[in-house]
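Intended use. Records such as the Chloride channel protein entry shown here are meant for training and evaluating sequence-to-structure methods. They are not intended to support clinical decisions.
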Amino acid sequence: KVIMALENGQQIRTVSLSSDDDMIDITTTGTITERSIHGEEQGSHWESDDIPGIGQYEDFHTIDWQRDIARDRMRHRYIIKKKQDSICDLIKGAHDAWSGWVCVLFVGLFTGVVAGVIDIGASWMSDLKYGICPQAFWLNREQCCWSSNETTFDNGNCSQWWTWPEVFTLAAALVRMFAPYACGSGIPEIKTILSGFIIRGYLGKWTLIIKSVGIMLAVSAGLSLGKEGPMVHIACCIGNILSYLFPKYGRNEAKKREILSAAAAAGVSVAFGAPIGGVLFSLEEVSYYFPLKTLWRSFFCALVAAFILRSINPFGNEHSVLFYVEYNKPWIFFELVPFVGLGIIGGIVATLFIKANLYWCRYRKVSKLGQYPVTEVLVVAVITAVIAYPNPYTRMNTSQLIFLLFSQCGVSNLDNLCDYNRNFTDVNSAIEIAAAGPRVYKAVWLLLLALIFKLVATIFTFGFKAPCGLFIPSLCLGAIMGRIVGIGMEQLAYNYPHIWLFSGECSTGDDCITPGLYAMVGAAAVLGGVTRMTVSLVVIMFELTGGVRYIVPLMAAAMASKWVGDALGRQGIYDAHIELNGYPFLDSKEEFAHTSLAADVMQPKHNEPLSVITQDSMTVDDVETLLKDTEHNGFPVVVSRESQYLVGFVLRRDLNLAIANAKRTLEGICGQSLVLFTNTAPPQATGPPPLKLKKILDMAPITMTDQTPMETVVDMFRKLGLRQTLVTHNGRLLGVITKKDVLRHVKQMDNEDPNSVLFN
């Protein structure tokens, strides 16, 4: 007998727009939710609290978006109807209406505080490996030297700062012992969770604690990683924990994802000091379901988080990010050519990085290397420290290097990059264009070596078993490339100021080319090529730099990078890691264009038996045997095995809970009791009382015919968030299509014809 595997139960729904909650309103027919709401006159509640656990999900299962939204809609209607009964119901209704805003307020507050602690801790631990401030051990090197009267510092040190040998990181050991889910960036998993998949431990309190401590240790160790990506994971952990304070969100997985979307926006907001970019990042990159109300709440959450971080002032200046700069020089129209060129180079470099990193991560999975995660992290840390130390641009903190590359050379800048033959007789005069000195060319060679080292180090670092982000390393790679190109353009303008390319802008003697701007554009190009972000990337970059006038160069580089990246490889780094880890993620950005039908994908195939439950002829023993012999997550309920006419759908979890609850609370229920999914029992002479389970039956599951095109099926799974749909022919049940079946079919078609199956 061939048994088919079902995902989980589903209600059939009437879909209509609701202006009340800015979401799809789902009306169920004959489901547990509706029967509960209809029975409220008899004192029942909107949920079936008489059977604990009904309506919840097991770990590593896909949620039923439509079912949860329907439950929340019925719950909302129940509260509205009961508002006028008493003062308590009125207060409860007001609390329910504002609970979403209060929840995102708390998420923003806690995210800002945690981000401030991480920023301060990472800065302190980065300097801790060089020494300590004996007068106040909690101060980093810069803050310790503020109170010193010395005007010059040797290698950034002062007499009040004491140095010692470098220390090792404990991040990998903490992750391995306490929170395995705290490793990596976290964004691929957040995207999967927001699409409806459940990974409970990934957003738990231990993951939050270990991720926060681990990222400070990892960044301070000098590894080629950043804390910005993990900040999104940390913010979502905070959102998940706080959502349980509000039952509307804590008990409903679909509603909880609205809070998680707002938390993701807050994470980017505090990571870059870019609240608008955070909202757009959540919308463009990670969120799967983003109604209008979630947009407002995400904006509010990102605003609160950015305000709290600014109040904490972790960097000790007037900015909420470390590499904030401002430029005043306008860009020349011809510079669009090198800007687009940077975008093309960024797309190529990003594609090389993605392919190399995926190759290494696959090797880690299949080799013995994956069995020794702590050893791998320690080896990478030691090799990184040994190779990075001789080069001053790899020895310094990555964020400090980005700040240096973004900066414009001035009187106070003594780095080799600013060794120009200038005569600063008047501090207030405009900076003149000048020939590059010998130290500039030496710095360019060192930057080329740093570029190669950072690229290789990030390939081996991203994905290992420690908290690690990708934003800062990507920005650093692009900033190095951009600065080198900017210096080349600057010297071209100095040597040939009167050619038509520069339109006379450089003939006045002023510095008309800004190498720091090229660094900023290059940074956006590489980050855009790695992540495939466009709109949110541009907004984040100009929020970082305050350079609103440079939106066009950033847009040109971001689009060129994305086009080149898409041409060389279809997936960004996060989507590639989702596929590598086998997460059930159905990308809503892609379209299915193949001529297959539902009958080609459904399980089981034609003329093969289907595992079902009859409405009134199976005993408790029969049902328990079926549950024991199969691993299905749900079963269709039919009139009889002969007719196969569909009655409804019941979840495996609900069956187990209902039978266990009946045996515990109802007298006379035994293995020979009939299990009924109808209102009336069939005539029987004698025997134990029947077990009536109609209240857990979904009497209106979503169905389609066997001739439905798979293009329509895929759209339904994407836009309605389905777990499975039942396939019928002339009203008789034939089989089921689950989300896993759809993903398997899409992957199969993609492998057979990658050019025609999926297109953006």
